[in-house]
TrEMBL record:
The lineage of its organism: Bacteria, Pseudomonadati, Bacteroidota, Cytophagia, Cytophagales. Keywords: Membrane, Transmembrane, Transmembrane helix. The chain crosses the membrane at residues 12-36. This is Uncharacterized protein (TIGR02117 family). It comes from Pontibacter ramchanderi. It comes from the Bacteria. Pfam families: DUF2459.
Length: 230
């Protein structure tokens, strides 16, 4: 019995040591690759379509105008599915991420160890979180504006459209009754969430898709925002 517990203890210690090493390597890799820019020669247009990238300290979103010459999002995100929004709302926010995490963690205090570990260490289903926003955002530490040309905006719109699962008629697949409040909803999304493809990586991918300066790899929100501020 003594040998059993001794070997078990050694095995547990080895596992924890390995996990700690992996965590340190992940953090270091994220910090290094998050500081390396791609599209570094990008020069922002002086006029065009303004979008925002927002950061809550952990998670980033893309915030776009509800209507432009390129797309009216209300043709895809029906206002009747948003009891608290109406035609006066000016912007719509998009965030891609782990479906279970979104569904079960409306606030950080709701996060469980099982949900956190599953979303990080196992490829999981994804969802798109969409929120109608009543008025334009203002620039601050957590809300960074970006001006895009028509071509850049078209590329970003296509990137977002491709992230939604769509029915044969082109409609998005609404996950009914799972929004946090009356102005947001969740939709089935394409792709799998895992340690190397996170919500911030999705936003960073949107920046890359339209040719904007972005991080080589951005698992953390500050990696995304850093490239916008530099």
């Amino acid at each position: 019995m003594y040998l059993f517990w001794r070997n078990t203890g050694k095995g547990l210690l080895a596992f924890l040591s390995g996990l700690a090493l992996m965590t340190v390597l992940y953090l270091l890799t994220g910090l290094i690759l998050g500081s390396i820019p791609v599209n570094s020669s990008y020069a922002q247009t002086t006029e065009g379509i303004e979008i925002f990238v927002t950061d809550n300290g952990v998670h980033t979103d893309l915030v776009l105008p509800v209507k432009t010459d390129i797309i009216d999002w209300r043709d895809k995100l029906y206002l009747q599915d948003y009891a608290g929004a109406d035609s006066s709302f000016t912007h719509v926010g998009f965030g891609w991420g782990d479906r279970r995490f979104y569904m079960e963690t409306p606030e950080w205090r709701d996060l469980t160890l099982t949900t956190a570990l599953t979303s990080l260490f196992w490829p999981t289903r994804t969802a798109m979180h969409v929120e109608y926003i009543a008025k334009p955002l203002r620039q601050n530490k957590y809300q960074q504006p970006v001006l895009l040309s028509q071509e850049q905006y078209q590329a970003l719109v296509q990137y977002i459209l491709d992230s939604f699962q769509q029915q044969p008629n082109g409609e998005f697949q609404l996950i009914e009754g799972r929004g946090y409040h009356s102005r947001d909803n969740f939709y089935e999304a394409n792709g799998k969430f895992h340690l190397f493809k996170t919500c911030n990586g999705w936003v960073n991918g949107g920046l890359k898709a339209m040719g904007h300066r972005a991080a080589l790899w951005a698992p953390f929100s500050f990696s995304v925002m850093r490239q916008l501020r530099d």
